[in-house]
Amino acid sequence: MSFAANLILASVRMAVPLLFIALAELYSERAGMVNIGLEGLAAIGSLVGFLVCFVTGSAWLGILAGALVGVAVNMIYAFATITLCANQIVYGMAINIFAPALASFIYRVYFGTGSELSQITLMNGIGIPGLKDIPFLGDLLFNQTPMVYLAYLLVIVTVIYFGKTRSGLNFKSVGEHPKAAATLGIPVTKIKYVSCVLCGALAGVGGAYLTTCYANTYTEGNVAGRGFIALAAVIFGRWTGGGILLACLFFGFCDALQIRLQVANFGLPYQFFQMIPYIATVVVLSLIGAKKAGPRAGGQPYRREER
Amino acid sequence: MTKFKRALTSFVVPLLSILLAFLIGAVIMIVLGANPLLALKYLWKGAFGTAANLGTTLAKATPLIFTALCACFAYKCGVFNLGGEGQFIMGSVVACLIALQSGLTGFPAILLCLVAGAAAGGLWGLIPGVLKITRGQNEMIISIMLNYVATLFMGVIYTSWLRDQNIPQTPAIPDSVKLSRVFPNMRFTTAFLIAIAVGLILYYYLFWTSNGFKLRAVGYNMTASRFNGFPVKRYILASFIVSGAVAGLGGAAELLGTQFRLINGFGAGYGFDGVAMALIGQLHPIASMVVAIFFAALRTGSTTMQAGTGVPTSVSDIIQALVIVFTVAGMALVKLPEFEAFRLRLSGGRKKEAKTV
Predict the structure, then answer these.
(1) B80 at the A interface (CB within 8 A)?
(2) Alpha-carbon gap, residue B79 to B76, rounded angstroms
(3) Of the candidates B135, B137, B324, which has its C-beta nearest A94's C-beta?
């Protein structure tokens, strides 16, 4: 297959973990919860997903475990920021420090130090009969791992949920103006907790994808800033499902391009190519500037009694 | 709450958090089949038991103090500089280039390395600062992205440009450029003294000068400061440059004092560690330095603990992470009106005004 076709296929694969993590942030921010702890959530999801897959041999159980541990860790964040009204940014940072430390501790206790890299079998791709034989498009859209389909399904569900359903509008109102939402009888605190459950689960899945569907081993720091790039993707995607999909495809493209350029070897040190996704994030963020389009009550604590 | 009580809570909450974190650490040790009291004894001995160990603790604390001060200073101005790691690394990279390539030796070389390291860190901090004030862009994401860029750039240096033959690391810097030890039998160098001096200067600037007051005012309430005519953007930019310069100086000092060469993993994690320490230290420069020394002690001691009891060193990372998780939650808890009411009921006080900010 040609270079370009390969590149596009790889972009889609690289975009998927970002997409899960960015959607996690979307659900969180739509309820006014700015969570910068995604990197940490993805890290612990990645490790636990790997571990469960290693023990049980099932990538699906790994993904499920990643989601569960993501929820569990994010509940710490939820309790501290919703119930105790801790600063969301600061607490997200605390999660970013806590979760990777926990992950590396579990890894070391389980595998010991100096043991050789343990490997797992990756999740198999499932081709959709008939459709997968269409040249190029078949490979791109219909011959991927189920997680890729799931990610795209999630985008569609998200767009419909926030755009077309009453529950989705209620959800959004919590992020825009929680007090007004509360006067309409919308359970603000409950929705905030629900958003944190969704955020933890999706970020955990995004992390678990990295070990169970992408690389078949766990290495420390394997999330490699995707948690933060996902934050940028939410801003770039203007807090909409479709926008986030495009943003993630763009960042996935940068990642795929970077790998291809490394392999092509232009006589430059490979690290210069590895910088591409990070520099692209900085450039994109500086180009779009700060047109504030996000939920208006993002980052603010909500207290019922307060006037 | 009175000023005194606020000061008290800002001591009590971190102390309780540390206690709680150690308790959980002890539970983990029991689960792993070790005696926590014995482990703690080894931890203490490893960190402070002998002059040599104390020296190692202080040497380990040095880079942490720099990044803690870096995070602390930016937070004081209300901006989140999460790029301490990148600024630290850029400082060390520039210092390394000068030490290996300039041909200078002795004191002038050391001075140039430190100054250039600080300048490089400041420049690296300038980028998110400029983007923040001109494009209003999220400084956290930008500064973190620049961490990765800096780490990769350092990789270029030690794997390609200044590679030590077959090993992916730079050659060691010449002996005459290394910082000297304060006491011959202790590992810490004059870098530690520089760190302390920087901390004291920042403390003096923040709390005893009018510019420092304005900077804190910007951090406390940006809108009010703007209406008061404070040059908010200039303070934000300056805080990024200074905090970057502090981290960069730290990187240069770490290179000249402890590591002597760039190698994979140099400076890794120091940026976020610095943020954690600044937060536990309640964004106070001196308290942050104390917390940095405490964390360094945990790390130094944990090696002895592992040798003595088999408890892996990463327990100390967990304890450190738990301290931050508890401290931040605890500080939020004591600010809740319900907590204040509860506390007043306990003390039987009848204070009318209990409003905290």
Answers:
(1) yes
(2) 8
(3) B324
Beta bridge partners of A127: A143
Helix/strand/coil (H, E, C) string of B74-125? HHHCCCCCCCHHHHHHHHHHHHHHHHHHCCCCHHHHHHHHHHHHHHHHHHHH
* Structure confidence at residue B187 as a pLDDT band (50, 70, 90): confident
The CATH label, of 1.10.8, 3.90.1200, 1.10.10, 1.10.3470, for the domain at A3-113+143-288 is: 1.10.3470
- ipTM of model: 0.90
- The per-residue pLDDT for range B133-182, each reduced to its tens digit, is 988 888 899 999 999 999 999 999 999 888 888 888 999 999 999 998 88
Count of alpha carbons within 13 angstroms of residue B89, beta-carbon side:
29
Instruction: Report the interhelical angle of B337-347 vs B314-335 (nearest 10°).
Output: 80
Which candidate, A75, A74, A69, A71, places its Cα nearest to that of A51?
A69
Token reading at A70: 């993501």
Cβ–Cβ contacts within 10 Å for residue B217, how many? 18
How are the residues of chain B apportioned to helix, strand and coil, as percentages rounded to the nearest 5? 75, 0, 20
- In a mutational test of the A interface, the residue from B130, B148, B298, B340 whose CB has the highest number of chain A CBs within 10 Å is B148
Read off the DSSP letter of residue A177.
-
Distance from C-alpha of B355 to C-alpha of B321, rounded to nearest angstrom: 31
Each domain of chain A, given as residue ranges in start order, spans 3-113+143-288
**Cα separations in angstroms, B230 against B73, B128, B129, B233:** 18, 21, 17, 9
Q: Which residue has the tokens 């304060």?
A: B182
pLDDT of residue A146: 87
Q: What are the structural domains, with CATH classification, of chain B?
A: 64-335 (1.10.3470)
- Asked if A275's CB is within 8 angstroms of B148's CB, the reply is yes
CA neighbours closer than 13 Å in the CB half-sphere of residue B229 = 0
DSSP code, position B174: P
* φ and ψ at residue B169, rounded to 5 degrees: -160, 160
Three-state DSSP class for A40? Answer: helix
Short-list A2, A5, A21, A7, CA closest to A260: A7
Please judge whether B315 and A105 are an interchain contact, meaning their C-beta atoms are less than 8 angstroms apart. Answer: yes
Place of tokens 């999630």: A154
Nearest to B156 among A229, A231, A272 (CB): A272
Model confidence at A167, pLDDT cuts 50, 70, 90, reads: very high
